[in-house]
Amino acid sequence: MPAFLLVPCAFMPHWHFCSLISGTSNLAVCIYVCIFVPMSCHAMPCQRLVDADVAEHGLPRQSLTPLFACLLVAHGHLILLLLTGSTFLIWFGPTPRLAVADPDLIREILLSRAEHFDRYESHPMVRQLEGEGLVSLRGEKWAHHRRVLAPTFHMENLKMLLPFIGKTVVDMAEKWVTMADPASGEVEIDVSEWFQIVTEDAITRTAFGRSYEDGKAVFKLQTQLMAFASEAFRKVFIPGYRFLPTKKNTSSWKLDKEIRKNLVTLIGRRQEATDDERLQGCAKDLLGLMINASSNGGRRRQPVSPISVNDIVEECKTFFFAGKQTTSNLLTWTTVVLAMHPEWQERARQEVLEVCGAHDIPCREQLAKLKTLGMILNETLRLYPPAVATVRRAKSNVVLGGYHIPRDTELLIPIMAVHHDARLWGPDATQFNPARFADGVARAAKHPTAFIPFGLGARMCIGQNLALLEAKLTVAIILQRFEFRLSPKYVHAPTVLMLLHPQYGAPVIFRSRSSSQTPDHHL
Ligand code: HEM
């Protein structure tokens, strides 16, 4: 039997240490830093793997802070891939994981032989954050929920949300203008914070539709709940601690109870609505679809698992979690790379002005014509995929690419490493070059499965259409109204805290295009 490729690599102990204690704990990172700092001196080489642009832009070097050390931990697989080839064993705490970065094998795992592999069950702390919805469900219940919820994300449905999302972006842009310094006409904005307003609004409309205001109140409570959960996630993990009646735990339980109470009231109100009201030309929202599915459950010949109030609560958590931060990270990285590459910024702006004009909120048909912007978004998703990896578990003993994989083996698909593999993307794999997507996604790399920011197969991201539409709309509106560049305060430090985000935020300097028409403006 071929043995797994065991890699004696300096990175293993770090991964091992950090993952033992919940992945991001400060204590673990301190241990990590003590062991690894003398060996690494500086983390810059790893960042260079992430983006060659850093060197070009002479961005400030930084000290090796604990969180920055996490970057190295998170990109261990990237380095292992480059050192060893595309299939290797890596330790995640006491558990071995087979990292698979070969696109043919990834295709087998996620698509052609997906029945042999299940989604990996997240840690309870993570599940608390992501909810027990679509992301973590499996088997028949997952299939039922996916079928029920899919219509929300059909393009015909989503395009009805565009004017609302567009209005939120325009309001945000107008606020930036009022914040500008009257002398210079410029304003510095940390886009990583502001974009969350846009994505929260979009997900609230998608989930609650015409009950938007009630939905906002629910998601506000959920934000507080998630703040508690993510704080706990960053601390040392003590099994069972989350069940103790500490001050924070009791506050979390109270919030959870309140969310359920609000949703039950909302569901009751929606159920009382007449059919006429339900069909008032509103977009199909997640809440409405789930309520219908719970009441239609009895009409199905073989009801799988009727959707309960608890299911609705958990799906709301899941969609809020899966839909908000991912898309705001994409928006943040897109703005950062456009600020780094003024020539692409200008090309994208000219296209937007030609297709959509200088002021109007772009409609679905216009967005579809923004080819350059589409290429830029793809290239951003390639270099900075918000979800850096995904994990599967073998359901039985299987042979994959000549390896005998025992049942229950975890398989890590390092999306970010695949996206940076020079064997697939060519020698400029670490460079920002949207032109590689000019002939479509399938032809951008040497393998059609080399680009998987939204996963692949049956469990591919259900929110992909919404994310891309929202991102295109938001960036188009910003390009119509502003020219922008990186703030000198910006530090290029992509780091992973569940998702890939800029460790020190993303301060960008915006200048309104109406004020920058003066002859002496410099960008
Ligand atoms: C740029 C934005 C986004 C990225 C990069 C992204 C990425 C992903 C990836 C990689 C997966 C597959 C995970 C796996 O195979 O294990 C996934 C699944 C999922 N995503 Fe997204 N996502 C994004 C936006 C959204 C949005 C806006 C929503 C909801 C409104 C959403 C909801 C979900 C859900 C519910 C799943 C689980 C699907 C299932 O298992 O059936 N995502 N996403």
The fraction of residues assigned to DSSP E strands is 5-15%
- Class of secondary structure makeup: alpha+beta
Low-confidence stretches: 1-74, 518-523
Radius of gyration: 23 Å
Helix content: 40-55%
Distinct small-molecule ligands in the complex: protoporphyrin IX containing FE
Backbone shape: globular
Give the rounded overall mean pLDDT. 79
Identify the strand order in the major beta sheet: 1-2-8-5-3
The N- to C-terminal Cα distance equals 61 Å
The helix tally amounts to: 23
Number of strands: 12
Biggest sheet character:
5 strands, mixed
Describe this structure as you would to a colleague:
The protein has 523 residues and is of the alpha+beta class. The chain has 23 helices and 12 strands. It is globular and about 60 Å long. The protein starts with 11 loop residues before the first helix and ends in an 11-residue tail after the last strand. Protoporphyrin IX containing FE (HEM) binds next to helix 12, helix 17 and helix 23. Keywords: Heme, Iron, Membrane, Metal-binding, Monooxygenase, Oxidoreductase, Signal, Transmembrane, Transmembrane helix. InterPro entries: Cyt_P450, Cyt_P450_CS, Cyt_P450_E_grp-I, Cyt_P450_sf, Cytochrome_P450_Monooxygen. It is a single-pass membrane protein. Its main location: membrane.
